[in-house]
Write a structure and sequence with these properties.
single chain; six-stranded mixed β-sheet; 60% helix
């Protein structure tokens, strides 16, 4: 009796689960730059319930131009010449290429399958909103007008689509490049699962996954051997 009740509940839950997957998730991203400060908020919702939220504020100058300690730069220059550094980089690139060469080979074989999968993914993504506003003011007023006109012309084309709204505000009394933007996407998880399962039926894709697994297993083995060697050396010392 209990088993039958469990099966009934399970069968009743399956369509509900499928509806939830079909409804999918929504991604919200808001970005705003004002006077060198960038603020952003990223949110993921399912059935209008927030399941992930992240907010942050960063100085754009620090993120673009990270500072380096002058003493560390001098030590690096003394410890390694430019020729040695170039030789080391070249050797490292060759080793990395040899490692990923089998993966590249399988990727080449799977090119058509991956291209088709990418098209399917785009079908599962629905753009609900795309808004952007650029505030621009340059020292050269002529250049400001040209850039604003160029953005206006693009906006006249893309803004004909309902979810898209791109605008620009030229400023002639100050030098400024601030902006704000919003994007909202709906992702149909059920379609993504179906397309993924179809992709896994392709032989080339399965071979690619096997090669990725082999590479990961080999890398883990090398890291483990390296740790054991270092531990052995420490014990001997």
């Amino acid at each position: 009796m209990n088993c039958n009740l469990f099966l009934i509940i399970l069968i009743a839950l399956i369509p509900i689960f499928l509806i939830i997957l079909y409804n999918g998730i929504r991604l919200f991203l808001t970005v705003e730059k004002e006077k060198g400060i960038v603020k952003y908020e990223f949110k993921v919702t399912m059935l209008k319930i927030a399941i992930f939220t992240r907010k942050d504020t960063k100085e754009i100058i620090d993120s673009i131009m990270p500072k380096k300690d002058e003493d560390s730069e001098e030590n690096e220059a003394e410890s390694e010449s430019e020729e040695e550094a170039e030789e080391k980089d070249e050797k490292g690139l060759k080793e990395k290429y040899e490692e990923i060469k089998p993966i590249l080979k399988e990727l080449k074989k799977s090119k058509e399958e991956l291209k088709s999968f990418l098209k399917d993914i785009l079908k599962a993504i629905d753009l609900k909103k795309l808004e952007g506003n650029l505030i621009i003011g340059l020292s050269d007023h002529t250049t400001t007008v040209k850039i604003a006109s160029w953005i206006w012309s693009i906006g006249a084309i893309v803004n004909s689509s309902k979810p898209t709204l791109l605008t620009v505000e030229p400023r002639f009394n100050e030098v400024i490049t601030d902006f704000e933007g919003k994007i909202e996407l709906k992702i149909n998880i059920l379609l993504l699962l179906i397309y993924s399962l179809v992709l896994l039926t392709k032989k080339n894709i399965r071979e690619l996954i096997k090669e990725l697994y082999r590479q990961k297993k080999s890398k883990d083995k090398k890291e483990k051997e390296s740790i054991n060697d270092n531990s052995q050396k420490e014990e001997n010392n």
